[in-house]
Design goal:
alpha/beta; single chain; 16 helices
Length: 463
């Protein structure tokens, strides 16, 4: 759809840039880079990181970004977004540059894609929402100084910009401009599953992709500032709007019925003897299967309370590694992938230990432990093993609470759990319940099934 902007729209973006330049000059700061492009010459996939505000008072304009994007020759392009938004026209220029790029573009929301950053996300051939991320849409806003006619023209311009943005959402997710304007005016926030249901995203990923961590940047390459905290209250954010769950009427539990059968009185003597014989034969013929629990056992090591980065630590591990090394580094491993006592890194989950240069796991990183506990519910680890994994991780947190000073403590070797005492033999237990108590269960069973005759009793008395 062709949209004719008001006469001052052409100068609106230029005036924003001029004001930003003057503001930076007054404060004596330089425009910082809010993006990074890596692997620009790769034949496989290049990566673009859009972290921080788009344009704005302290950010750079889209000109240099688009110039750098033209140098990407990879067949695939992954655009990682963590931005609260920013300048509308800078964002639209970036979105159009991504649409026109020949690579297959995948947009991955790492944290938040709000305001114009959500419009940039719509430019991807595929949009993925990482766990716990959010996407926000709202009407355009701006500042105007002037007389009444200037204010009226600014209002028309903002409505037209909002209509234009609504068309971008409708083009991807379907629906009408009016539908999306209504959601924008209400300032709508989407969790990953909500964004997929609304058609704004293609997938809500459940866990990070396994594989070798991305190559670290060269030492002489300037690293963009990626840790700026966003003040979302500037966008009127008061938290995601969620409907209160309706109270459900309690459902009465069904009455339980217990059926008790006395097998000894229900069966004939010869039937009971035959049943006991078959049970004993089955007991001897069928060994009890071994229960395999691949949640790594609880062990106690030194702890480190500092920022956690699993990539460099896992990179120092060998692959394949021994099962012992996996238990000392991770909280869970897939035993089906163990071959000759070794398994690959991809078979292990929830790393949380520091790894030395020689590939030896050491102290538990408390930040890594907390991260593993947070990721456990979204992982594909079998639910039956979640409790064992939690016990493993909680033990490290408990160790940190009780230790006087673990900063200089050498990590102790992982302690293998002592084997549990085998439970009472299942078949012997069944037999004991079927017969009367006696020193010898089998002798008691035979004694209860035989009836001495009068002649045999007399013979016993005269003997």
């Amino acid at each position: 759809m062709n949209i004719q902007l008001p006469g001052k729209a052409a100068t609106f973006q230029a005036s924003q840039r001029e004001q930003a330049e003057r503001q930076r000059a007054q404060l004596g700061v330089e425009a910082r880079s809010w993006y990074r492009i890596t692997n620009a010459a790769s034949d496989d996939e290049a990566e673009v990181m859009l972290y921080d505000e788009i344009g704005g008072w302290f950010g750079q304009t889209a000109d240099q970004f688009i110039a750098d994007l033209k140098g990407v020759t990879a067949k695939n392009l992954r655009v990682r977004v963590n931005s609260p938004g920013g300048s509308v026209f800078e964002g639209i220029a970036i979105a159009n540059a991504l649409r026109s790029h020949p690579a297959n573009v995948t947009v991955q929301v790492d944290g938040i894609a709000a305001s114009i950053a959500s419009v940039i996300a719509m430019a991807g051939d595929r949009v993925e929402m990482a766990p716990n991320t959010m996407l926000m849409i709202h009407d355009a806003s701006g500042v105007c100084i002037g007389d009444a006619s200037d204010m009226e023209e600014m209002g028309e311009l903002l409505d037209l910009i909002s209509d234009n943005i609504a068309d971008a959402y409708a083009a991807r997710a379907g629906g009408t401009r009016e539908d999306w304007r209504a959601r924008m005016q209400a300032e709508t926030w989407y969790l990953p599953e909500d964004a997929v249901e609304a058609g704004l995203a293609d997938e809500a990923t459940t866990s990070p992709k396994a594989g070798t961590p991305a190559a670290e940047p060269e030492e002489d390459e300037p690293e963009p500032e990626m840790r700026r905290a966003f003040d979302l209250t500037a966008y009127g954010y008061q938290g995601p709007k969620r409907e209160e769950p309706k109270a459900e009427e309690p459902v009465a539990a069904p009455e339980s019925t217990t059926l008790t059968i006395n097998i000894e009185s229900a069966l004939a003597d010869e039937q009971l003897v035959e049943l006991l014989r078959k049970m004993a034969a089955r007991r001897d013929a069928e060994p009890v299967p071994e229960v395999v629990d691949t949640a790594c056992p609880v062990h106690h090591t030194a702890t480190e309370d500092r920022p956690w980065d699993s990539g460099p630590n896992e990179k120092r591990l060998p692959s394949p590694m021994t099962v012992k090394t996996a238990k000392a580094m991770y909280a869970w491993y897939d035993d089906s992938q163990v071959t000759d006592g070794e398994l690959p890194k991809t078979a292990c989950k929830l790393p949380h230990h520091e790894v030395s240069a020689d590939g030896t796991p050491g102290a538990a990183n408390l930040s890594g432990v907390r991260n593993a506990l947070a990721r456990l519910p979204q992982s594909d680890i079998p639910a039956s093993q979640h409790d064992a994994v939690r016990r493993h991780l909680q033990a490290h947190l408990d160790d940190a609470k009780t230790a006087d000073d673990t900063a200089d403590t050498e990590p102790t070797a992982a302690v293998e759990p002592e084997p549990e005492t085998p439970a009472e033999d299942e078949w012997a237990s069944i037999v004991a319940r079927l017969t009367k108590p006696a020193p010898d269960p089998w002798a008691a069973a035979v004694a209860n099934l035989t009836h001495p005759t009068a002649s045999s009793s007399a013979a016993t008395e005269t003997a």
